[in-house]
Amino acid sequence: MTTTDPPIPIAPATSMNSVNDFLAVWMRGSDADRLFLWETMRPSELRFLTEDCWPVFAHPHQLPPAGAQNGEPWLTWLLIGGRGAGKTRAGAEWVRAQALGRRPFAERVAGRIALVGETEHDVREVMIEGVSGILGVHPRAERPVWSPSRRRLEWGNGAIAEVFSAEDPESLRGPQFHCAWSDEMAKWRQAEAAFDMLQFGLRLGQHPRQLITTTARPSALLKRLLADPSTAVTRAATAANAFHLAPTFLRSVMKRYAGTRLGRQELNGEIIDDRPDALWSRALLERCRVDAAPGLQRIVVAVDPPATSTKRADACGIVAAGLTDGGIVYVLADDSVNGATPTMWANKAIALWRRLEADALVVEVNQGGDMVRTVINEIDPSVNVVPVRASRGKWLRAEPVAALYEQGRVKHVGAFAALEDEMCDFASSGLSHGKSPDRLDAVVWAVASLALGRRGNGPRIRML
Fold this sequence. Notes:
Layout: H1 16-28, H2 31-40, H3 43-52, H4 54-57, E1 76-81, H5 87-100, E2 112-117, H6 120-128, H7 134-137, E3 145-147, E4 152-154, E5 160-165, E6 179-183, H8 191-201, E7 209-214, H9 220-227, E8 231-236, H10 247-257, H11 261-266, H12 282-287, E9 289-290, E10 298-304, E11 317-323, E12 329-334, H13 342-355, E13 360-364, H14 370-379, E14 385-388, H15 394-406, E15 410-413, H16 417-424, H17 438-451, E16 454-455, E17 459-460
Helix pairs in contact: 13-14, 15-17
């Protein structure tokens, strides 16, 4: 084909042979050939191309893989990409194909579809109504009816997609689906619980599947999915979708973040396990892991209360640890809770205190002061509450505790994925993953009260 050739007539979508012929020519031609076709197409031809020929424009990472890592049909398609890499468009197009039964993405119509985001707001604003969302990728004649009050999309053929929030894993208990699209799973606060509940609902049809689109974070769940032979993985950096991004955006973020840990994660889609400046590493925590604790001389439950009690508030860190006669600290449990009221987290902490028959409830009182102790005493006045107050920053408080880990004087009884993620991403800014490390704060208070505190007539904790 040369630039003097007339444009190729585009057949209607019902003529699949003509469509395939056109696609073959389009894919085989040079950039100049494609530009010529694009500039000389009639409006109806352009609509057909943009609405019905997604594979023409899709990047390789946006198309469903042929098989999983072992060559078998995949159950989970994990699309990991940088910011702006086209993850949302890929998810929306995949859902469209499932709902309409479009080959080669779907063998038949998926009558029940789950759409899961961090919150219902995220599902609506990004996955459904967003620029690259489900409504946007449908031509008007095929567009499903969106009922926000019912939190569902309904196609003309009867296919239905329901909206779920990862903040409410229990809402996934009961419904059943042919397929699911989960977005930004790496930042879900209750990722493990929401993911587990979704798996029990993927039980319709002969081959239920799920697509997970997410940026890269070193979460335990993401690592397990990457290692699962039934998972097919595609990756993409932000630059892969540069044509659809503002040039000034790409230049500015690359100049500022290229090569940095944040840039590698958010732009390249890399999973970075450890921070170079972190006090803890994955390897160190693995060396500290044991199956069980020996006899313990003293047990405490440490609580780091949140400043507020809204659903999007910081977590309340609740961690238990015990001390042996030999001076070794064993971390026993992480019962931290998200979005809890003072009464809720106090009940949770007291339940752990009772279960382990702990000696004290060590509570940080910078936020709330006397109110914290009052709430606990109203529930159970027999609890031995030891208030502690932070007089130094999080990093300075954590350093002596990290030194105990390095010396082999702290052990983890089992694995604490969420806690260990915070520890290995804890920065000198006092944040982990850009948020307050509430679980880490609690483990620091627990270990410090056992190994760095002083006891006279009663438990007395050094002000860290």
